[in-house]
Prior knowledge:
Strand content: 15-25%
CATH architecture: 3-Layer(aba) Sandwich
Distance between the termini: 39 Å
Oligomer: single chain
CATH superfamily: Cobalamin-binding domain
Helix content: 25-40%
Order of helices and strands: EHEHEHEHH
Radius of gyration: 14 Å
CATH class: Alpha Beta
Number of strands: 4
Shape: globular
Number of domains: 1
Largest sheet: 4 strands, parallel
Amino acid sequence: MKKVLLIATNSEKKPYPVPPIGLSIVAQSIEKDYEVRVYDAMFDEGTSLPEIVNSFRPDYIGCSIRNVDSMSVEAPEFFLEPIHENIIKPLKSLTHAPIILGGSGYSIFPYEILDYFGLGINRKS
């Protein structure tokens, strides 16, 4: 059976932590056909990811991008940089499994996020 690692990349705890409900629904919907493991970066922001990837050895990796930025005028935060540094870069160095992106934040800027993470596809302008 093929293995799928699903990663909730959101680690923002303000104003409160948000559970990865959508990712959990995806996990449940594919568990008949795949061995599925869910990793929530909320708890350790990617620290245990290398151990999980090396022990589970996924065939596919799905990453949910919840938010792109904090939408705050007073103190704007850009969330893609820590996701890139703590999740995407380590994944690319640990495995050749395809990295599949999704989530509400990703849906707003799909091409830009693919390019930012170095996962871009060749497309015509």
